[in-house]
Predict the structure.
Amino acid sequence: MLNDESIRWLYTQRVKLHLNNTKENEIDIEREWKTLQNVLKSAANESLGKTKRRNRRKYLKIWDDQVKQKLHIRQLETSNNTHIKVYI
């Protein structure tokens, strides 16, 4: 996305704006690192925005009697709280 000239310009302007609002010459390196992280994240959020994550779960595509039977057996095992397999 930063390949687009206008988005890159907006991002650099936001980074400059946020960096001008921060304190200079921090003594604590960890605090300076956190400040830099926050500046970059907020500039990216303002210029690029956020996208909604998609559900990446992969569901079973083939459902047949054998899968149904194994699922039923598994449900019986967990509901009875036993580890004995029941074959139907």
Notes: The CA atoms of residues 20 and 34 lie 16 Å apart. The two ends are 56 Å apart (CA to CA). The chain is about 60% helix and 0% strand. The helical segments are 5-20, 29-48, 65-80.
